Amino acid sequence: MIIQHAILHILDTNTGNLIASQGEMAVDNVGVVEYIEKLTAKVSNGDVKTGTLAPGYVKDKLAESDFAHMTTDLATKLFGTIEAIETVQPGDLLSFQATTDEGRLFGLLKLNFTPRYAHTVEYIDDRMVNNLVLNQAILPAATQSVEEAILVNLDTWHYQLLEKKYLIDGHRATYFSDRFLEIVPEVSVKENIQTIKRTVKNVAEQYDDLPEHEVLAMTQEVIYDALESGSINTDMIAEKVFSDNISAQQQYKEKMTDKMVDKSIPVENTQKYEKKFRVQKFKLDSGIEISIPMSVYQDKNKVEFMNHPDGTMSLVIKDIDSVLNKFTV
Question: CB–CB of 174/161 below 8 Å?
Answer without folding.
Answer: no
